[in-house]
Every structure is written in C-alpha cells, then in structure tokens.
Amino acid sequence: MPHPKRLARRTFLCAAAATGAGVLAAPVLADIPGVHTKPIPSSGEALPVVGLGTWITFNVGNDPAARDASADVMRAFFAEGGRMVDSSPMYASSQDVVGYGLKKIGGPKVFSAEKVWISGLARGQAQMEKSRRLWGVGKFDLMQVHNLLDWETHLPALLEMKAAGKIRYVGITTSEGRRHGDFERIMRSHKLDFVQLTYNIVDRAAEARLLPLAQARGIAVIANRPFQEGDLLRKLEKKPLPGWAGEAGCKSWAQIVLKFIVSHPAVNCAIPATTRVDHVLENVAAARGPMPDAALRKRMAEHVAAL
Amino acid sequence: MAEWWTYSLSDFLMFAPRTYYRLFELMNEALWPAHIVAVVVGGVILTLARLGGAGAGRAAAGLLALAWLTVAWAFFLERYATINWAAEYMAWGFAFQALLLLAAAAPGRALAFRAERSAIQSLARGLILAAVFLYPLIAPAMGRAWRQAEFFGIAPDPTAVAALGLALLFPLRAMWLLLPLPLLWCAIGGATLWTMKAPDAAVLPAVAMLALVLAVAKTRSRRAQTRGAALTARTASVIDGRTP
User: Fold this and answer.
1) B2 and A148 in contact by Cβ < 8 A?
2) Which of B6, B10, B16 sits opposite A178 (nearest CB)?
3) Does B2 lie at the interface with A, CB-CB under 8 angstroms?
4) Choosing among B9, B29, B82, which should be mutated to test the A contact, i.e. which has the most A CBs within 10 A?
5) Which of A145, A220, A278, B222 has its CA 20 to 30 A from that of B241?
6) Given this model, what pLDDT does residue B116 score?
7) Between B3, B14, B26, which is nearest A59 by CB?
8) CB A186, CB A155: distance < 8 Å
C-alpha cells in the first residue's frame, strides 16, 4: 500500500497537467506575482529563481514533434513566470530548438544565457555569432565560458563585449565539481557577473568555498544539474515525502530539491531541464510559496543524506 | 580535457534514448522502401559469400562499400549529426571503410573467398545473415516500435556486423585491413547503448568479441597450415636429396 505522504512526481503532475492546459492557452506574461526572484548582484536586476536548462532535453534534432514539445515546455515556463533559459554549443541542436521555441511562442521576455565552448578567439567569436543567430535574439544577456575552455582567451574578450554593450553579463561555468581550484582563482581575479556550477542537495562541494566567495565578491550563482540528470529524483521518488515537506511548501521531491538549492543565500537560480510541460510546471512552482530557512535546509540535507 | 579521469561515459551522452531511437523512426519513414533494396543487397552479399571465388569477393566488397557510404551519408551526416556533433567524424570513418573495401575490391587484388567448410567460415556467414535478417527484429524484441527497426545498409550497427562477417571470409591481409573500423564502431555503438541503459547494449560488443576471436583463430590456423606446408616441402626435398 502506498505511503500516504508519498507523492510521486507523476501524481503531482496529474493535478499540474489540469492547470497546464489553461496555462498553455494563456498569453505569455513577463512577470508573475508570487514568483520568487533574486537580484543579480552586479546590476540589481531581479531574476526568477527557477530557470530552464536545455542539456539533453532540447537536443532533439529535426524531429518536428519533439521540437513542438520543447516549444510547449518553453511556453509553459514563460507563462508561469520563468525567464532564464540556458544553453550551449556543446548541446548540439538545443540552441536551434530554443530559437524555434522562442519564435513559435512569439518572442517572450527571455533572459538568454549562452556559452562559448571552443578554443581560439576568432573561432569563439564566430561560435557566439552562430549561437545568436540560432536563438534569433539581438544579443545575449549572459555569455559564459563553458567549462573554462580556453578561458584565458575568452574571458577578456567577453569583458570587452560587455563594455561595448554586445552582451549584458559575463560568466564562467563548471559542472560535477570539476576544476574548483581554477574556478576560485578566476572568481578572485576577474570581475564576473555570474558563475555556473553544480549544486544540489547531495552535491554540496560548492558550499565550502565557491558559494561564500560568490557572495563576498557579488557574483550571481546559477546551479546546474539540480536533479543529477534525473538520477537523484529517480532515487528519491522511491521514498515517501518527509513530514516537513509542507513546511517548505513542497508537494514533490523535485520541489524539495529545487527549494533547497535556491534557498541558499548565494544561489540566484537553478536550471532544471525537462522535456515535459507537466514537469516544467512542477519545477517553476518551486519558485513560489514559502522557502526553507537555514534550520529547515539543514533538516532537508540530513534527511536526504540518511535515505 | 582537464581532469579527464572525472568524466564518465554518461557525460558524453548528449541526447536522450527516446531521441536516438526517433532518428531511426524518422529515417525509416523517409527512406522507405529503400529497406527492401538494402535487404536484397544483403542477401546478394550472403549468396556471394557462399559462392566463393575472386569475382564474388570483389562484388561483395563493392556492395558492402556502397552500404557503408549510404550509412555515412543517410544516417551520420543527415540525421545523427543533428544531435551529436561527433557524428561528422563517424561519417568520415564510415566513408573511409568504404574506400578500404573499394581498394580491396580493385582488380588484381587477391580477395577470393575460400571455398571451404569450416566453423570460422560458417560463423562468419552467420554474422552476415544475422546482420541482414535478424538485426531488424531487435527493436521489437526489446519493446521498441517496429518503425524504429535498424536495417543493414541504412543503420550503422547491422552494417558493421555484416562487415565483420565479410572480412572474416577474406584472405588474412584483407581481413585485418577491413576489421578495425567495424570493431571500433562496435565499441562506440555498444558504449552508446550501454550509457543509454539499452537492454541490447551487449549485442555489439559480443559480436565484436566473437569476430576478434574468429580472426585470431583463423590467423593461427593459416599460419599453422603454412608452416605445415613448408615443413612438408622441406621434408620432401630432404628425402629427394637422399634418394639415389
């Protein structure tokens, strides 16, 4: 017999899907009351705390049905108050699919986060221009050096582009805890607007040095791989929802994981990726309602660690 | 790549299994009824492999080259490249194997099938048979749609398996020239399926292992035959020399 407090992602989604039908038909709104935002330290611009990643999920090639499904995910995301969409040239067709979605849903108010992922200045510039054309935007809001690839070349160029008004923010990325030493050195030595790193309820290495450093240096933090590409949720969803889930305003494990991430004082935004409208609604809903305080965050982490 | 030891195979998988299999579905829809031609070509290659002889060897190699070129273009460049930026390199690999097959099939090359009955020859022909006629059954057997079936001459995996079988039928030098790229593809394809947690992920590595064992066994057997023949000749000459 199922545990009374167990609420699997699928169960939550039945209810979410019902509201989703209305959401998809609604006009895309720029700002939705009730959605938690955090200011980008370097500008004060407010960003909703849940964004949209595109790794794997939006890499669907020329499959017309899958491209339309991705556009539906984006429509639901923006309609519920999401703004940041993150992609990379590394993600194959994801950029093209993002561009397709943006065009299809009529140019919503997107915060475009892209990456440069190639060696060499000229090739980097050409890659960024190609990315811009694929997205169909005038300029990117945020350009990041992906996985620090040739960062010595790209970072000065990005800072020049920012000064020239060609991009609005500059950042660097890493994932899965790699190169944190280099990451820290660059954070200390360069004027960055954003860093992107892996942080979730079980991958917490960034808490030791990088997150405090980001706070101290006034750098916004984007948390990638919040669900460990789904592996974390698949494990957690076998367990009943804990009693304190309601205190945090969570109706699912996905929301627990997301609220844990974005309630860290240094983290501005998490970027879960999904192919499904019901999942994106569930994810964006984590940007609403009560957020866990430090004591509850501690309980959350201890509970998950003990599972 | 920095800290390369921290990467796992899953870090390089940039698409979902659903997306990968949809490639075959969309490709099958677009290319139908080319599948009938592909199966007929596979059947002809199998028949040539049974006939034996230099002409049959060259014809089979030429047809197989056509299959590898088709896969390079229709699968890797036209479809797989949309979800995997490494697919272009794979297309070059398949095109290069086609060139090797054409070079091996050029007039004057010793590419005769051995008209002999041995376990190795039978297993090699069995690989071709499986690639052409059994491989399309794997998708439905694994619970995927028929529309996602993989056909020889269109999809890379059965084409590589057929190439392994055919290479094993050729003389040693041509065999070792034509084995590496199909073996490499079996490793790449198997790793991809394993990372996708596909239930049939073991098929390609198992076939590659079998082909490798058969190739080594054939090489040792031929060398033993050569040594035996040389010994016989030396013995005969010694006997002849002592004969008054």
Assistant:
1) yes
2) B6
3) yes
4) B82
5) B222
6) 64
7) B14
8) yes
Instruction: Tell me, letter by letter, the H, E, C secondary structure of chain A.
Output: CCCCCCCCHHHHHHHHHHHHHHHHHCCCCCCCCCCCEEECCCCCCEEECECEECCCCCCCCCCHHHHHHHHHHHHHHHHCCCCEEECCHHHCCHHHHHHHHHHHCCCCCCEEEEEECCCCHHHHHHHHHHHHHHHCCCCCCEEEEHHHCCHHHHHHHHHHHHHCCCCCEEEEECCCCCCHHHHHHHHHHCCCCEEEEECCCCCCHHHCCHHHHHHHHCCEEEEECCCHHHHHHHHHCCCCCCHHHCCCCCCCHHHHHHHHHHCCCCEEEECCECCCHHHHHHHHHCCCCCCCCHHHHHHHHHHHHHC
Q: What is the pLDDT, as a whole number, of residue B1? A: 53
B3 vs A contacts (CB less than 8 Å): 178-179
Closest-CA residue of chain A to B1: A149
Query: What DSSP designation does B12 have?
Result: G
Residues 231-250 of A with CB under 8 A from B: none
Q: Could you tell me which of B179, B204, B206, B181 has the C-alpha nearest to residue B193?
A: B204
CB contact under 8 A, A56 and B79: no
Q: Under 8 Å CB-to-CB from B165, ≥6 apart: which residues?
A: B49, B124, B125, B126, B127, B128, B129, B130, B131, B211
Q: Where residue A5 falls among pLDDT bands split at 50, 70, 90?
A: very low
Cβ contacts (< 8 Å) between B26 and chain A: which residues?
Answer: 62-63
Q: Report chain A residues whose CB lies below 8 A from the CB of B83.
A: 59-61, 92-93
| Per-position pLDDT tens, chain B of length 244 | 555 666 677 778 899 999 999 999 999 999 999 999 999 999 999 999 888 777 888 999 999 999 999 999 999 999 999 999 999 999 999 999 999 999 988 877 666 676 567 899 999 999 999 999 999 999 999 999 999 999 999 999 999 999 999 999 998 999 999 999 999 999 999 999 999 999 999 999 999 999 999 999 999 987 787 777 777 777 777 666 655 4
Mean of pLDDT values over A241-264: 92
Chain B residues whose beta carbon lies within 8 Å of the beta carbon of residue A53: none
Q: What is the CATH topology of the domain spanning A37-306?
A: TIM Barrel (3.20.20)
For A180, the closest chain B residue by CA position comes to B3
Nearest CA in chain B to A231: B10
Boundaries of every domain in chain A: 37-306
Summarised one tens digit per residue, pLDDT across range A245-255 is 988 889 999 99
Q: Model's pTM, two decimal places?
A: 0.86
Provide the 3-class DSSP secondary structure of residue B149.
coil
Q: Which residue from B6, B22, B82 is facing A176, i.e. has the nearest CB? A: B6
ipTM, 2 decimals?
Answer: 0.85
Quick check: A178 and B83 CB within 8 A?
no
Closest residue in chain A to residue B87, using alpha carbons only: A92
Residue ranges per structural domain of chain B: 15-229
CB contact under 8 A, B19 and A179: no
